[in-house]
């Protein structure tokens, strides 16, 4: 079974621009979660989508948004980029996203904001 | 405030010996705990998990122990191999919390 895939793997943007990242979950997985990893803050939860609905949201500003499509693929958008948004963005999928359901991660998208 | 803590940033062990990675948590609502391994420029790879109804779970060379009263879990790797060298993350979920990660610990296994 193919794993979680994320595109693109690397991105360079400038401050003020916006960016869209894509994630394809493992076949059959309906829950997709997004995380931001930075050296200072570690891995932090952004949001989770299930059946095209945002089910949970972490403590990030409204510039961070996402959506999920009927095939469970998900996109994450960051508007008005700031230097501090430079990070590794990770997508994880799981069957239903509930307690006891293991999340499997993609390779991540490395975003650099100049 | 950090809900999941990995207090040691790094650990170095000899090949063939045991590696013990520790993790503490503060939220008593956490009921599912996981360990992930991560190489640079890659996403975390799931290693092993444990539910709060158990105190031990084994998978090959990896064993996770959970002490609920102490809010502590540990990952034992026996025997350690050079390929185990990576950053290990402890994570927990439960209550209203989605997956909460520790800051990670870098394990180096020397040949």
Task: Describe the protein's architecture and organization.
The complex is a heterodimer of chains A (114) and B (111). Chain A has 114 residues and is mainly beta. Helices cover 0% and strands 53% of the residues of chain A. Chain A has no helices and eleven strands. Chain A is globular. Chain B is mostly beta strands. Chain B is 0% helix and 58% strand. In chain B, the strands form two sheets. In chain B, strands 2, 4, 5, 9, 10 and 11 form a six-stranded mixed beta sheet that branches. Chain B has a five-stranded antiparallel beta sheet with strand order 1-3-8-7-6, with no helix packed on it. The chains are: A mainly beta (114), B mainly beta (111). At the A-B interface, strand 5 and strand 10 of A face strand 4, strand 5, strand 9 and strand 10 of B.
Residue stretches of chain A low in confidence (pLDDT < 50, at least 5 long) are none
| Subunit organisation of the chains | heterodimer
**What is the averaged pLDDT score of chain B?**
94
Mean pLDDT of chain A: 94
Q: So how many helices of chain B?
A: 0
Q: Main β-sheet of chain B, in a few words?
A: 6 strands, mixed
Q: What fraction of residues of chain A sit in β-strands? A: over 45%
What structural class is derived from the secondary structure elements of chain B? mainly beta
Gap from first CA to last CA of chain A: 37 Å
Order of helices and strands of chain B: EEEEEEEEEEE
Query: Helical residue percent of chain B?
Result: under 10%
The best one-word shape of chain A is globular
Number of DSSP helices of chain A?
Answer: 0
* Strand elements of chain B, count: 11
Q: What is the CA–CA distance across the termini of chain B?
A: 38 Å
List low-pLDDT spans of chain B. none
């Amino acid at each position: 079974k193919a794993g979680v895939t994320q595109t693109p793997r690397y991105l360079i943007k400038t401050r003020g621009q916006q960016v869209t990242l894509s994630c394809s979950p493992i076949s059959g997985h309906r829950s997709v979660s997004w995380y931001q990893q930075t050296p200072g803050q570690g891995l932090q939860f952004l949001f989770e989508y299930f059946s095209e609905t945002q089910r949970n949201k972490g403590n990030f500003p409204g510039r961070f948004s996402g959506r999920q499509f009927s095939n469970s693929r998900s996109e994450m958008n960051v508007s008005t980029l700031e230097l501090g948004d430079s990070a590794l963005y990770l997508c994880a999928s799981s069957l239903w996203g509930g307690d006891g359901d293991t999340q499997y991660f993609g390779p991540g998208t490395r975003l650099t904001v100049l | 405030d950090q809900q999941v803590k990995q207090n040691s940033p790094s650990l170095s062990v000899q090949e063939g010996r045991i590696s013990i990675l520790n993790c503490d948590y503060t939220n008593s609502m956490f009921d599912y705990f996981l360990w992930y391994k991560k190489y640079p420029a890659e996403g975390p790879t799931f290693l092993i998990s444990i539910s709060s109804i158990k105190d031990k779970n084994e998978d090959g060379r990896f064993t996770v122990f959970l002490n609920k009263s102490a809010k502590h879990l540990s990952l034992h790797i026996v025997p350690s191999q050079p390929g185990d060298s990576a950053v290990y993350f402890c994570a927990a979920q439960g209550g209203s919390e989605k997956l909460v990660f520790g800051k990670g610990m870098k394990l180096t296994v020397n040949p």
